[in-house]
Task: inverse folding
């Protein structure tokens, strides 16, 4: 009997891996949704009450900054935790026996967490808009911007997970990167309230471009800057996926 030894097409591989990843969270997605929604909501309430008279611009930064924290850094933390677990338990060894591409495994995991984070994104946006009194002016570009915001740092999370010596070390690195990238650019704090050197450093952070793109796509108005933000995020996404694809070792060391 002849067997077809050809590997499945890239699309079949991606869909199968994506569905496999989703099944891992079929019993816990509710709690994941709850925790990823409650945290940014509480942050919006706390910061909103603290700077209630700070002006509309400040409130816009609070809303979009917390969405960035949930969408970008929340996914980065989940992805690093997933890859760290897969490396330690030998799951990567299992995937090494399958006719699948490493880059597609990475992409499938990133997309699964992105899908699971969308309900939290919507709830945070609606609650923040209501609580802060900010009207939503949704642009069709948001369909492109959401994945471009989430994937670059989620890919970095994958790199952290496969290179760290322990889950504790991976979690600490993820937290440190979150604090640094939020602090060095106009993510939650308006640009006119940050010193010049932090604005310069913020240009190397994906969070800066993600926050800028979200402010324009969610609350308007759209300017030519949004296309620069999209181009930078797309470039960072491609570079991050390429680096992690080369660095990911199927075999546990």
Result:
């Amino acid at each position: 009997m002849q067997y077809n030894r050809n590997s499945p097409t890239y699309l079949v591989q991606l869909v199968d891996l994506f569905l496999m990843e989703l099944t891992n969270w079929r019993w816990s997605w509710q709690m994941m949704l709850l925790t990823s929604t409650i945290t940014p909501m509480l942050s919006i309430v706390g910061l909103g009450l603290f700077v209630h008279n700070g002006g509309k611009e400040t409130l816009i930064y609070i809303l979009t900054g917390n969405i960035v924290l949930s969408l970008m850094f929340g996914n980065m933390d989940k992805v690093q935790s997933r890859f760290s677990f897969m490396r330690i338990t030998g799951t990567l060894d299992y995937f090494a026996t399958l006719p699948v591409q490493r880059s597609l495994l990475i992409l499938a995991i990133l997309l699964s967490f992105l899908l699971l984070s969308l309900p939290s994104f919507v709830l945070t946006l609606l609650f923040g808009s209501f609580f802060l009194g900010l009207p939503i002016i949704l642009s069709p570009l948001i369909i492109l911007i959401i994945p471009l915001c989430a994937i670059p740092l989620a890919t970095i999370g994958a790199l952290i997970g496969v290179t760290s010596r322990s889950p504790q070390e991976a979690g600490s690195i993820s937290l440190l990167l979150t604090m640094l990238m939020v602090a060095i650019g106009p993510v939650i704090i308006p640009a006119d309230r940050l010193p010049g050197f932090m604005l310069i450093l913020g240009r190397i952070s994906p969070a800066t471009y993600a926050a800028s793109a979200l402010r324009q796509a969610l609350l308007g108005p759209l300017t030519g800057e949004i296309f620069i933000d999209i181009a930078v995020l797309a470039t960072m996404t491609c570079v991050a996926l390429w680096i992690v694809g080369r660095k990911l070792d199927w075999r546990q060391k």
Observations:
- The chain has one domain: 16-247.
- The CA atoms of residues 56 and 113 lie 32 Å apart.
